[in-house]
Amino acid sequence: MSFQNIKIGNKTVGQGYKPYIIAEVAQAHDGSLGIAHSYIDAAVKAGADAIKFQTHIAEAESTPGESFRVNFSYEDNSRFEYWKRMEFTPEQWKGLADHCRNSGIEFLSSPFSMEAICLLEKLDMSAWKVGSGEVNNSLALNAMIETQRPILLSSGMSDWTEITESVERVKNTKTPVALFQCTSKYPTSFSDVGLNVIDEMRNKYAIPIGLSDHTGSKSPAMAAIARGVDLLEIHVVFDRDMFGPDSKSSVTFSELKEIVDFRDDCHLMHESPIDKNKMAEDLLEMKKLFNKSVVLLESVKKGSFLKRDMLTVKKPGVGLPADELFRCVGKRVNKDLECGHILNWEDFYDDV
Question: Is the four-CA dihedral 101, 128, 160, 63 of positive or negative sign?
Answer without folding.
Answer: positive
